[in-house]
Amino acid sequence: MTPFTYERAIDAAAAARAVAERPDAAFIAGGTNLVDLMKLGVARPKHLVDVSRLKLDTIAESEDGGLFIGAQVKNSALAADARVRGAYPLLSRALLAGASGQLRNAASTGGNLLQRTRCPYFTNTATPCNKRSPGSGCSALGGFNRIHAVLGASDACIATHPSDMAVAMTALDAQVRTVTGDGATREIPMSGLYRDPAQGPEAETVLTHGELITAVRLPPPPPGRQVYRKVRDRASYAFALVSVAAVVDARDGQVLGGRLALGGVAHKPWRVSEAEQTLGAESRPEASFAAAADAALKGAHGYGANDFKIDLAKRTIRRTLADAAGVSS
Amino acid sequence: MALDISANPIGQPVDRIDGRLKVTGGAPYAYEHRLERAPAYGVIVPATIAKGRVRAIDAAGAEAAPGVLLVMTHRNAPKQPAFGPPRASARFARARPYLGDDRVRHWGEPVAFVVAETFEAARAAAALVTVEYEAETPALGLERHLKAAYAPETINVGMKTDTSEGDFEAAFAAGPVTVDATYHVAQQHHMALEPHAAIASWDGDEVTVRTSAQNVANTRKALAATLEIPLEKVRIMSPYVGGGFGGKLGMRAEVVLAAFGARALKRPVKVAQTRQQVFSNVGHRPEAIQKVRLSATRDGRLTGVSHEVWMQSSPIEEFAEQTASSTRALYGAPSILTRHRLVNLDMQGGEPVRAPGEAPGLLALESAVDELAHKLGLDPVEMRILNDTQIDPEKKVPFSSRKLVECLREGAARFGWSDRPKAPRERRDGPTLIGYGVAAAIRPNYLGPCAATVRVAEDRTVRVRTDMTDIGTGTYTILAQVAAEELGVPLKAVTVELGDSRFPVSPGSGGSWGAASSASAVLDAARKVKAEMARTDEARVFEATGSVKGMRETQSYKDFSQYCFGAHFAEVAVDEDTGEIRLRRMLGAFAAGRILNAKTARSQMIGGMIWGVSSALFEEAVVDPRFGHVVNGDLGEYHVAAHADVPNVDAFFVDEHDDKANPLGAKGVGELGICGAGAAVANAVFNATGVRVREFPITLDKVLIG
């Protein structure tokens, strides 16, 4: 770990300004990911701006019937919130599927969105990695890539985004609110938050240096039943090989529509509008689920150790959609 | 002087006498001892190539960093004896040089050592050390180097490399029913909760090292040999050990480097390996390919058993895991062939990992036996019973005790085996397929030479001393139980002091010999004290040293073949859509002689079983052949079973007292629980799905492809 200085920001704008002023500064909230990366020498900020004590830790109902979630709401608190459990069980389930109890108690909503990949070549400073050291190459190509991407990857980087929460938020059409160093605020849809690795894997989001996530806004929940299904190598405390966030609106055995997002398969939560359009387009639910699975995995490409994910994702999508629709497959 | 006779404590499910200390932080582990003088902190800099030499090291940045006291590399490290040939008879006691030359023999080998005023300063400075390598092409990848396989002189514990009873090839050719299957077991790691750590301090020319060692006497010898100082000048203390599993049998870099640092700086130095470093600096269970061939009559009698193993070893230090050794004694076939071959790769050498040999070997053998039972349409419990033997097929002597059949029968009854799905894919529960599996357990029973002193004070309190260690198993407690029972005093009157090289020498914790050996020595000492007390009415201090001879000097280990036995029963659910395997319940039945403490022994069995589940389903260290490092070298990606993976794991002992084993009739339990446990799970996966995965761990992708 490289020595660093530390300050505690007094408000969001001041925090954003403090980081924006120094190229070697970074925000720290729960620290569940950043501190690990600092110990490993992967992240080497010289200055940390602590945003964990900002008054951004409340969940409020918004005027449109949605929820307004402060960026410093802990993952455990968000998962346990009665409004979240009632109207957005998808989000609650996704959160509880992630990490461990201790980590969820420390991890923040904003930090969860910004966590770095668990690619083991990224976290090992002795192996080449374009994300950590641009231009050095991607060791996961031709290496051990069981947990890597099958969608949206590039030869520069095949890492996945590890968040479960973000997958649910993507399916729920969440909007991310930020403040920049010069005090400007903006709202970014989840679908627009993450950058394609082909554009340079070292920058994972569209956020500018010093831009702080202050909140996540959830619109009113879409109609239908919500199911989050995470497939992993052990029953808890493992990142998703594949996860599926599904919302299916079905009545009397007929599928009317729904949402579908995937985790563990790409550099971002993967949502394909063509896949969602198939929901309700076929008269037989099973046919529409199969069509949705095929559409969601269109263009998928394996890299050896993760080839199995393509079929696994399709199987998990079909099953999860069926579960959400209440029809047994 | 007479003592009160209280209830017999041996065998009782007594809580650990050190339990309260441990849960309240009162039991110092290696890195936690507080010395009078504040220590300096050492951090190891590991090599980042698999083979070659260090061409240049730039330590200037580290040396100039705040708080740095010392940067040691091969250029300024003290002179040490060479490591020597890859084979050594007393390998845990031999000198083990670090930073001794410019060679890099495997990824992660220490190339520099940084000591500073604080841990943080040392770690920051360690990151500033830049090393320039002259890399050579390493030999990596077991399968691609199989042609270089060779037969070692012996395998671990001095066992024979190859054995052949009867004419296996003829039996196999004659069939009539055969199985020929090749299994692959992954490289696995100890992953003790407490990483390897040491604090060294010098007083003149004498060094004391507080460390986490399974065997204090060997660590003492190894350090004395490395430092080239007399044995009497070295004291090793290891009162509490946060798990060893074989990884702490030998001295490692942290001990040597702490001693160097403390001597150079004239103050205590403490060092811990990081979790990542533990993956490349303390040994591992080597990756292995195992070919098992069985032949049997149509009614299920084995006519031939063959078990051939090819495994990774290292040109630096040879380690041949005794993977096929249990096959020599488990079933009574007229022809049994076993063979071990090593393939040298540019990696660290293998080491014993809980049940070395038995754990990976039974994974293959007991899967193959299940394959045979399935082929024959026989109940795998009954087929195992049919092939039981009371004579060791290799040694041609009777077993001292062998209750495999009792374990199978009693375990089957308690588990509800008769309700099992008879054929694969027969039972469902919602979207999952349900399967039952069984496997046998076998593990040699060892006895090591051990000494202990027992002292009874005037106030009738008792003190037990031996350099034996408690690696989390319950040694403190069982030795107190034995002393209390023999002397007829309450348990709380007994104080047990362990893990100090000033105490009488034990064989340490390892090989499951610790309890029987140390308890026998304590029993002997207590008997001597008691005899002396009976001779006098004086109220004074009584003290005696007791001992037990090792098995090599004990006739009953020549006249009888000594093993522990057991049977595992597992129920799994396999998701038909995703291939996810989840254990539902598991039961182990074990025969291990007299049980000294029903609670700590059961805990050990359950711990072993859980590791068996973990090794069958999760654990795999992936070595990248381009670099030579363990890619998934942390506990986030090297998966060990989490709590949610091991619901409802239970174990019980069948009643046994083995009077051939030792005066207590007790046998080792530390490793028995893992033996065969993984195979029971694998067989349950087959029973559920009809898919036989022969490449461990059985991950969901392998089930889906099948």
Automatic annotation (TrEMBL), chain A:
Gene3D superfamilies in UniProt: 3.30.465.10, CO dehydrogenase flavoprotein, C-terminal domain (3.30.390.50), Uridine Diphospho-n-acetylenolpyruvylglucosamine Reductase, domain 2 (3.30.43.10)
**What domain of life does the UniProt record list for this protein's source?**
Bacteria
Instruction: Tell me where the transmembrane regions lie.
Output: none
| Keyword tRNA-binding attached | no
Pinpoint the FAD-binding PCMH-type domain residues: 1-223
Q: What is its EC number?
A: 1.17.1.4
Question: Which GO molecular function terms does the record list?
Answer: FAD binding; xanthine dehydrogenase activity
| Record keywords, A-Z | FAD, Flavoprotein, Oxidoreductase
Return the protein name.
Molybdopterin dehydrogenase
Q: Which organism is it from?
A: Methylopila capsulata
Automatic annotation (TrEMBL), chain B:
* Pfam families named among the record's database cross-references: Ald_Xan_dh_C, MoCoBD_1, MoCoBD_2
Report the SUPFAM superfamilies cross-referenced here: CO dehydrogenase molybdoprotein N-domain-like, Molybdenum cofactor-binding domain
Q: Which UniProt keywords apply?
A: Oxidoreductase
Does the keyword field hold Oxidoreductase?
yes
A GO molecular function term, named singly, is: xanthine dehydrogenase activity
In the UniProt record, does the keyword Oxidoreductase occur? yes
Q: Where is the Aldehyde oxidase/xanthine dehydrogenase a/b hammerhead domain?
A: 24-137
Q: Which domain of life is it from?
A: Bacteria
So what EC number does this one have?
A: 1.17.1.4
The record ties this protein, via InterPro entries, to: Ald_Oxase/Xan_DH_a/b, Ald_Oxase/Xan_DH_a/b_sf, Ald_Oxase/xanthine_DH-like, AldOxase/xan_DH_MoCoBD1, AldOxase/xan_DH_MoCoBD2, AldOxase/xan_DH_Mopterin-bd_sf
- Name the record gives this protein: Xanthine dehydrogenase
Q: Which organism is it from?
A: Methylopila capsulata
